Every structure is written in structure tokens, then in C-alpha cells.
């Protein structure tokens, strides 16, 4: 009969598992960005900036909104919003650095170095944005929700059909921009109905979707 594992052994197993996941995650991220022509150092720099930037939400403006349900937790964690904020009948619209500004800047960079035609980029973004808009739903007290793999599969397929010779960069561009446009910007009017004090474009729940969309779409393209 084997003795039961100690707490230290259990914690060690958890640590090994977490490290394995991190190594796998970084490996997949590096492979994806390698398809976009980035070196390992550039990929790690982009990852670091994205993760650090995910905690920075820059306020833009505010809109009137409906009162939240009593059971909803009203909070947005970030560098500029680090504590729960009370709902006062208005929602602050912010933009997330890691989930919006960096993907936008990187998309512009990819479009320029790959010389992708503006018409193809616009068409691809429009298709993904339309799918994201139809697939997303406002979740009262929380934000905008959408099935996780809808955007990356749509972006990869769209890129392969529109520009098979440059499918990887176009998949990243239309994937990230499509989520920002379809599940965030086009849903701004729905923000008034979900009763949250702060809504961040590219932040909170949509950051994971945007980040994952860019990586998965590139791998599939």
C-alpha cells in the first residue's frame, strides 16, 4: 500500500503541470508568430507587451446606462481601474492597451510589410466582424460574450479563401480586428443595457478572445 502524497508533493505536481502548460503555450505562440515572420525575440517582446498592456485600460468617454442587477459584481481590474467601481447610471468606455491598441498596431505593421491590398483586408475584416456580431451576446452585469472558437475558425477560413498566399498575416488581421469591430465596437449600444460601470474595448472578457483568435487563426491558416 503506497502512502498518500504529501502536500509538498501535490504542490510540486501542480507546479510541473503549470510549467509544462506555459512552455507549451509559449511554443505555440512562437510558432504562430514565426509564420508571421517574427523572430523569437520579437515574438517574446510582443507577448510581454500584450500581457502587460492587458492590465492597462485608458478611459475614452462615458455613456448613460441602465442599472445593473443586484447580484452582479461590478468591477474591472486594470492599472487605471484597480478596484471595484460603483455603478452611478453611467458606463465609462475605455480601450485596453494589450487587447486593442497593440493588436491594431501589429495589424497595421503586418498589412504594410506583406503589402496586402486594402480591399482584401476590408472584406476579410467585414466578414469576421459580421460573424462575431451575430455570434456575440450582451451578458447583463458582465459584458459581451461569444463562443471562443467562432472567431479564429472564421478568420482562418476567410484568409485562406481571400488571400491563400498571405493567409497567416491576413488571418491575424481579420481575426483580431473582426472581434474588436463585431463583438466590441458594434455592440457599444448594448453596453447601455448590461449595467456595468466600466466597459473596455479589447479588455476584460474579450481580451482572451482577441488574443486567442490571433494565435489560433494564424496556426490554422
Gist of the model:
The chain is mainly α and 221 residues long.
Any key phrases for this structure?
221 residues; mainly alpha; three-stranded mixed beta sheet; two-stranded antiparallel sheet; 8 helices; 5 strands; 11% strand; disordered N terminus
If you had to describe this structure to a student in words, what would you say it looks like?
The chain is mostly helical and 221 residues long. The protein has one domain (8-220). It contains eight helices and five strands; from the N terminus they run H-H-E-E-H-H-E-E-H-H-H-E-H. It has a three-stranded mixed beta sheet with strand order 1-2-5. Strands 3-4 form a two-stranded antiparallel ribbon. A hairpin with a 3-residue loop joins strand 3 (137-139) and strand 4 (143-145). It is globular, with a radius of gyration of 19 Å.
Amino acid at each position: 500500500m503506497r502512502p498518500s502524497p504529501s502536500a509538498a508533493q501535490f504542490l510540486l505536481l501542480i507546479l510541473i503541470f503549470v510549467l509544462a502548460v506555459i512552455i507549451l503555450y509559449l511554443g505555440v505562440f512562437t510558432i504562430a508568430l514565426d509564420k508571421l515572420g517574427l523572430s523569437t525575440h520579437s515574438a517574446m517582446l510582443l507577448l510581454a507587451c500584450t500581457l502587460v498592456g492587458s492590465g492597462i485600460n485608458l478611459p475614452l468617454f462615458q455613456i448613460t446606462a441602465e442599472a445593473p442587477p443586484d447580484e452582479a459584481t461590478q468591477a474591472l481590474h486594470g492599472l487605471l481601474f484597480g478596484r471595484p467601481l460603483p455603478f452611478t447610471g453611467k458606463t465609462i468606455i475605455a480601450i485596453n492597451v494589450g487587447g486593442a491598441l497593440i493588436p491594431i498596431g501589429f495589424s497595421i505593421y503586418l498589412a504594410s510589410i506583406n503589402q496586402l491590398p486594402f480591399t482584401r483586408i476590408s472584406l476579410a475584416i467585414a466578414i469576421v466582424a459580421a460573424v462575431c456580431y451575430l455570434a456575440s451576446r450582451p451578458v447583463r452585469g458582465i459584458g459581451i460574450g461569444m463562443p471562443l472558437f467562432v472567431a479564429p475558425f472564421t478568420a482562418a477560413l476567410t484568409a485562406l479563401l481571400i488571400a491563400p498566399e498571405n493567409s497567416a498575416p491576413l488571418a491575424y488581421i481579420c481575426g483580431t480586428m473582426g472581434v474588436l469591430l463585431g463583438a466590441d465596437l458594434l455592440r457599444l449600444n448594448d453596453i447601455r443595457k448590461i449595467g456595468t460601470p466600466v466597459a473596455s474595448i479589447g479588455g476584460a472578457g474579450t481580451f482572451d478572445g482577441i488574443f486567442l483568435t490571433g494565435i489560433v487563426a494564424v496556426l490554422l491558416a
